[in-house]
Backbone:
C-alpha cells in the first residue's frame, strides 16, 4: 500500500509518499512560506533534491504543485496518481466529535467544517488540502488524523475550565490540546531511544515551532498539555498570544472598537513573538535581529524561553517529577541557542544541559550531561509516519 501524507500548516505544507510494506519514504517535501512571493517547494527523492521558488498564493496551489512533482517524469516517483492507495491528512481540531482517526466521508467533512470555528488558523488549510486531493484523486480513501486525539486521556481536572459546568456539557468548552500526533510520536520514540518502557517514564515533550505546545506524558498517556480549547492557548508562539488574562480580550475590544473577528485576528496572527518584536514570527530572523541589538526581538526571545521553562515546571509538578525532557519541531530541533536559554535554570529538576552535546540539529541526540538525573533529548518529530500508520490501518478495513 502506498500512502500520501498531507500536513497543511498555517504557512506550510509537508508531504510524504510512504510505501507501507516497509514504511520506506519514497519521496517527501516541504512547501514553505505559503502566501509569500518567495514561497519554496523542496522535493526530495532517491537521495536527490529539487527546489522551486515561486509565488504560492494558497494551499490549493501548493497541493497541486506537490501532486504534479510526484508524477513528474524527471523527479517524480510514481507514474500516475493511480499508484496512491490512500491519503492521510493531518487535521488539527477534532473537537469532541473525533476521539480517534477516521475515514473521511461527506458527514465527516461537515463535522470538520463545524470544528473550523475552533481552529480558524488551522482547520481551513486542512480542509482545503482534503478537497484538493479529493478533486484530483476521486475514490481514493482519505483519512483524517487529529491533533486532539492523543490528549483524550487527560483527566477532567486537567481539561476542565473554571467556567459554568453547562458550557462544557452543552458547548464542549474544555481543554482539547493539540500537536497530539507529534507528542505521540516523540513519546514512543524517546522510550525506544532510551531503551526504557513507556510505562516507566515521565516525559515532558516541548514541541516548539510556529505553533508551540508542551505535553506531560506519564506511563505512556498524556495527562496534561499547554494548549487548550483552541491552539491559541499556552505559551506565546510565532503569531499567537498564548495564555492571557481573559479580561484583556474584553478591554481591548472595548477600547479599540474591535469586532470578534478582528480580535481573533489580533490574537492569532498579530501577536506572539511577531507582535512583541515587530520583526518576524521566524526564530531565525529574531535571533539575527537580537544579535544586531534589536531589544524587542531579544524581549520576544526572552519571553519565549521563559514561558517554556515555566511550563516545564508546571508539568513536572503535574507528574510529580520528570525523567526526560524532549525538544522537537522547528525551533526545538534546530534552535541550539533557544534550547540553551530554556534549559538555563532547570538544574533544580536534575536537568543539566551539556553545551557540547547541545550543538546538534535535526537528529535524535542526548544533550544533557552524564550526571543529569533528568535527561534532555532532541527528538525530531515525525507526524507523517504516525499519520501513514493510522491511514493504512483505517483504509485497509
Ligand atoms: P515548524 O512550525 O515546526 O515548521 O517550525 C518553524 C520554526 O522553526 C520557525 O520559526 C523557524 O524559524 C524555526 N527554525 C527553523 N530552523 C531553525 C534554526 N536553525 N534555528 C532556530 N529556529 C529555526
Residues:
Amino acid at each position: 500500500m502506498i500512502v500520501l501524507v498531507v500536513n497543511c500548516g498555517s504557512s506550510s505544507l509537508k508531504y510524504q509518499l510512504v510505501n507501507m510494506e516497509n514504511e520506506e519514504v519514497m519521496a517527501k517535501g516541504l512547501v514553505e512560506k505559503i502566501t509569500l512571493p518567495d514561497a519554496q517547494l523542496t522535493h526530495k527523492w532517491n537521495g536527490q533534491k529539487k527546489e522551486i521558488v515561486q509565488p504560492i498564493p494558497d494551499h490549493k496551489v501548493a497541493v497541486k504543485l506537490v501532486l504534479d512533482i510526484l508524477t513528474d517524469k524527471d523527479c517524480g516517483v510514481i507514474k500516475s496518481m493511480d499508484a496512491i492507495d490512500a491519503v492521510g491528512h493531518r487535521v488539527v481540531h477534532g473537537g469532541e466529535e473525533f476521539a480517534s482517526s477516521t475515514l473521511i466521508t461527506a458527514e465527516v467533512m461537515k463535522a470538520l467544517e463545524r470544528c473550523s470555528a475552533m481552529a480558524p488558523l488551522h482547520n481551513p488549510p486542512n480542509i482545503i488540502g482534503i478537497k484538493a486531493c479529493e478533486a484530483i484523486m476521486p475514490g481514493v480513501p482519505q483519512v483524517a488524523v487529529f491533533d486532539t486525539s492523543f490528549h483524550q486521556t487527560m483527566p477532567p481536572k486537567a481539561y476542565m475550565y473554571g467556567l459554568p459546568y453547562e458550557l462544557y456539557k452543552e458547548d464542549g468548552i474544555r481543554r482539547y490540546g493539540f500537536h497530539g500526533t507529534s507528542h505521540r510520536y516523540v513519546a514512543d520514540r524517546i522510550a525506544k531511544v532510551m531503551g526504557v518502557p513507556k510505562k516507566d517514564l515521565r516525559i515532558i515533550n516541548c514541541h516548539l515551532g510556529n505553533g508551540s505546545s508542551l505535553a506531560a506524558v506519564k506511563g505512556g498517556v498524556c495527562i496534561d498539555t499547554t494548549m487548550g480549547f483552541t491552539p491559541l492557548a499556552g505559551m506565546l508562539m510565532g503569531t499567537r498570544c498564548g495564555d492571557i488574562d481573559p479580561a484583556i480580550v474584553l478591554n481591548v475590544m472595548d477600547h479599540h472598537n474591535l469586532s470578534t473577528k478582528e480580535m481573533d485576528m489580533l490574537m492569532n496572527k498579530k501577536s506572539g513573538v511577531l507582535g512583541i518584536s515587530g520583526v518576524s514570527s521566524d526564530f531565525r530572523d529574531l535571533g539575527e535581529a537580537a544579535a544586531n541589538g534589536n531589544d524587542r526581538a531579544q524581549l520576544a526571545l526572552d519571553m519565549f524561553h521563559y514561558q517554556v521553562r515555566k511550563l516545564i515546571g508546571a508539568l513536572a509538578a503535574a507528574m510529580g517529577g520528570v525523567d526526560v525532557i524532549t525538544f522537537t519541531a522547528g525551533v526545538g530541533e534546530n534552535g541550539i541557542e533557544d534550547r540553551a536559554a530554556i534549559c538555563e535554570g532547570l538544574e533544580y529538576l536534575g536537568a543539566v544541559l551539556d553545551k557540547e552535546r547541545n550543538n546538534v540539529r535535526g537528529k535524535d541526540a542526548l544533550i544533557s550531561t552524564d550526571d543529569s538525573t533528568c535527561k534532555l533529548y532532541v527528538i525530531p518529530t515525525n507526524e507523517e509516519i504516525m499519520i501513514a500508520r493510522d491511514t493504512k490501518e483505517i483504509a485497509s478495513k
